[in-house]
Each structure stands twice: as structure tokens, then as C-alpha cells.
Amino acid sequence: MKLEYFIAKRLVTSKDNKSSISAPIINIAIAAIAIGIIMMMVSVATGIGLQQKIREKIAAFNGHIVIANFDSNQSEATLVPVALRQSFYPNFKEIPEVNHIQAVAVKAGIIRTETAFEGVMFKGVGMDYDWKYIQEYLVKGRLPIVRGNLNQEVVVSEFIASRLQLKLGDSFHAYFMKSNGYNVRNFKIVGIFNSGFQEFDASYIIGDLRHVQRLNKWTANQVGAFEVFVNNFNEIESIGEKVYQETSSTLDSKTIVEKYSYIFDWLKLFDINIIVILVVMILVATINMVVALLVLILERTQMIGILKALGADNWSIRKIFLYNALYLIIRGLFWGNLIGVAILIVQHYFGIVKLNPENYYVNQAPVYFNMMYIVLLNIMTVVVCFLVLLLPSYIITRIFPVRAIRYE
Q1: Quick one: which of 87, 118, 126, 196 is 20 to 30 A from 162 by CA?
Q2: What residues pair up with 171 in beta bridges, in sequence order?
Q3: Predicted confidence (pLDDT) at residue 133 exceeds the cutoff of 70
Q4: Residue 400: its pLDDT value, please?
Q5: CA 116, 156, 198 angle in degrees (round to 5)?
Q6: CB atoms within 10 A of CB 267
Q7: What span, in angstroms and rounded, lies between the C-alpha atoms of 40 and 205?
Q8: Distance CA 118, CA 120 (A)
Q9: CA distances to 76, 155, 214 from 183, in Å
């Protein structure tokens, strides 16, 4: 065992150390490390979690990339149909990053009941539709059947059902405008979902694509748009450019980052917030560790003088106190990680911290739990604190043996 580590270990386990004047300062430093790592873990987990959850919700109703006709239509409703037979459908073979593509169509309408009415967007989907996103948000009932014979089954949001006083199993009339009047369709609610994204929950009902085709007098070979899903969302800009290049000149493609730029610009602010919190927490932790180290050095001035008198060099003595400081950092990280992980687990499974969906698009603070970022946060804390502590440990070189031994 190295001499420096041996002495540092004796200092840490010494009973006198626990009753010395430095004890409260040391405890404060450990608490600062613990609180710092907790705040960093929570900020990263919730910040990234919120970004991912909102991305998933937007993709659930739009896909990652939307391919449609060029038109000046600013609404979600489809006016100009697209031919279903395309070189990229049903498999986008030219772009391996694309994992799924589905045909959809949207029609604007009004739901009218005996007591209220509500404007909605009827989203028609086919057998190729990936229901996994809506399945996640389903709170009652089941998904509609869109294969076989045409039926009236739809899923509606909890928001719309509440406003129209509808419940699972109820039927309602929907009115869709046409050039010389309107069409009426009768639908039955077989499922109710709640995505927490009020912009979509307040608008969409989902049913069979063939309803939209009949309302618009399209053929079975005509749809409103194609929704494309990619493997890696972080590369959506480059993949979106590839999709645009590989589609016909008569078609336009747009990523959800472009379509909902105001939301994604807002999400980018979370990256800045996370960085600010990391910097502040690291700064607070290092300041407290510097103070603790200086107090430890001051308290052990006589020991430093004796070691120097016995022939120990400055770097050996500095290593003793750096080992001591490293022990305090590890203690702080242990308690910080224990409490931080417990907080994240509780939030993930019980959703104690609630959020206003009108402002944050989610009902509760989502958590992104990944051991890699926790390990990186711990390594970053240890490295930064240890490097900063090299500077105050330099004060040991200014201590002279004769004066130090006489120091009281």
C-alpha cells in the first residue's frame, strides 16, 4: 500500500477527525456534492425525457416525415389526393434509415350531439397503419378494425369525449362539407385515448381510410399523404433531405421539425437549461470542496511540518490530501446517486410531479433513464473537482517545517 494512501486512509477513519472543527464543513461539502449530482441527474433525465416524449407524441399523429402534394393548404385536411402506387411505397428501399411508411388522409368535419358540437379532423388510416403509438395512449376500449368490410368504428380523445359528453360505445353523427351541402356519417366509439398533447387531442378522431376516400369521391388508389418513420430521429434532417430527393417532383416532403418548428425551437431551450444547471451545480460542488480541502490542510498543518521534516516531498503530501478529498467526493456521489436514482424511479413509475399539458404537452414530468449519462455525470464531477482541487493543494508547498511544527 502506498504511503500517501495509507496516511489518507488513517485520517479518514480517525475518530478525532469526526469531532474536529472541520467536521461540519466536511459534511457540508459532501452534501453539496450529493445535491449537485441529484440536481444534474434530475435535470438531464427530465429535460431529455420531455424532449423525447413530445417528439413521440408529434410522431404519433404525423410520422417523422410527411409526403404529400404541393398545395397552399395550411390546414391539416387533405385537399389534393396522392396516388397510392409509388416507388417508395410500401417499402422505401432507396433509404434504409426508413423503417415504416403508411398511407393516411384527413378530412375536416363537425361532430354534433343533442347538447353540443365540436370541430374535428377525421384521420383515415389503412391496414398498414402502425397503432403502437395510439395503443400506448389508449385509456378505454380497443382500437378500431380497419380491415375487411367498412365499419363505423373510431377512437376519439378523452378531451373530445368529455366536451361532447360521449362515452365508450356511444354513436354520434359527423358532418363533412361538400360543394353543394354536407355529408353525414354515423360513427361508433370503440376506444378513447389521451396523449396529453392537447393540440392533437382537441382535434383528431381516427377511423377507416375508406370513409375519407368516399367522402372526397376518391378511388381506392388515392390517399391524402404518406407518413414516414425513421430509425434514428437525431438524423431526421439528413434523412428528410434524402426522402425529398427520392420522391417525385410533384410531391413535397416535410419533417415534423419543419412542420412544428415552433415546438422544436422551444425544446432546444431545454438543452441550454441543462447546460446552465450542470455548470452551476459543478461550480457549487467545487467551491465547497475547495473550502473543505483548505480547512483540512489548515487543521493538519503540524502533520505537514512533521512529514516534511522526515523527508516527504510536497507532491507526496499533496496526494495525501487529494486522496482525502477524493474520498469525500465519492461519499457525496454515493448518496447523491442513491437518492437521485430513487427520485427518478419513483417519478417514472408513479408520476408524482404533474405538469400542465397546455404548457408542456404532457401530463407529468417524463423521465429518460439511462445508466450511461449517470456514469458520465459522475465521471465529469470527479474529474472537474479533482482538477480544481490541485490548485488549493499547492498551498502545502508554502508551509515550512519549523513554523508548521510550532503551529497551534
Answers
A1: 126
A2: 188
A3: yes
A4: 62
A5: 85
A6: 17
A7: 40
A8: 6
A9: 19, 20, 10
